[in-house]
């Protein structure tokens, strides 16, 4: 486990220096007007930095450690990843609280629960379809019962339109700002 910890240390410093762009702030503003649930594969805390509440991190987050034994997660805030023992079970083998390739990602279960609870009053917005891990078409296919799906990405797969998605071929920042402005809520 140690090499993983070392490999992620420089990246953590890099994440700390990043600042949320206007798209993140637009989401926060939208959330102040209407309920918004954010589901992200990002491990950074840019949504939180922008003031957004209620963020689900599918792949964990940079300010957590996790236990390889009991799967307990705990916050380490700004501290670097350490090899501190698990506070729940005392296991010495802890790791950064982020999901590495090949590891289980338990929060996907939460994603599917949320997906199942959506109603026709909800709008499902997919931003950044360059994701290799979450297949946006799979998500759209499973969301077909919903009347309003929005996809924002400069390279939207052609197949997205056949699923009835509103396609906005812009960068995440520009697309999310434009789309939220078009809602006329802010
Ligand atoms: Zn533990």
TrEMBL record:
The active site is at residue 59. InterPro entries: DHS-like_NAD/FAD-binding_dom, NAD-dep_sirtuin_deacylases, Sirtuin, Sirtuin_cat_small_dom_sf, Ssirtuin_cat_dom. This is protein acetyllysine N-acetyltransferase. Keywords: Metal-binding, NAD, Transferase, Zinc. It comes from the Bacteria. Zn(2+) binds at residues 67, 70, 86, 89. It comes from Chitinibacter fontanus. Its EC number is 2.3.1.286. Residues 1-186 form the Deacetylase sirtuin-type domain. The lineage of its organism: Bacteria, Pseudomonadati, Pseudomonadota, Betaproteobacteria, Neisseriales.
């Amino acid at each position: 486990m140690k090499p993983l910890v070392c490999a992620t240390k420089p990246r953590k410093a890099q994440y700390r220096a990043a600042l949320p762009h206007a798209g993140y702030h637009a989401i926060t503003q939208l959330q102040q007007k209407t309920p918004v649930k954010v589901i992200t594969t990002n491990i950074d805390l840019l949504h939180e930095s922008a003031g957004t509440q209620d963020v689900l991190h599918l792949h964990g987050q940079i300010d957590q450690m996790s236990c390889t034994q009991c799967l307990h997660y705990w916050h380490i805030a700004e501290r670097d990843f350490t090899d501190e023992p698990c506070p729940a079970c005392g296991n010495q083998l802890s790791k950064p609280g982020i999901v590495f390739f090949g590891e289980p990602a338990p929060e996907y279960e939460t994603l599917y629960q949320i997906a199942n609870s959506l109603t026709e009053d909800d709008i499902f917005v997919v931003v950044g379809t360059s994701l290799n891990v979450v297949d946006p078409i799979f998500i759209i296919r499973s969301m077909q019962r919903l009347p309003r799906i929005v996809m924002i990405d400069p390279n939207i797969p052609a197949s997205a339109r056949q699923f009835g998605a509103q396609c906005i071929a812009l960068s995440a920042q520009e697309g999310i700002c434009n789309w939220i402005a078009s809602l006329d809520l802010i």
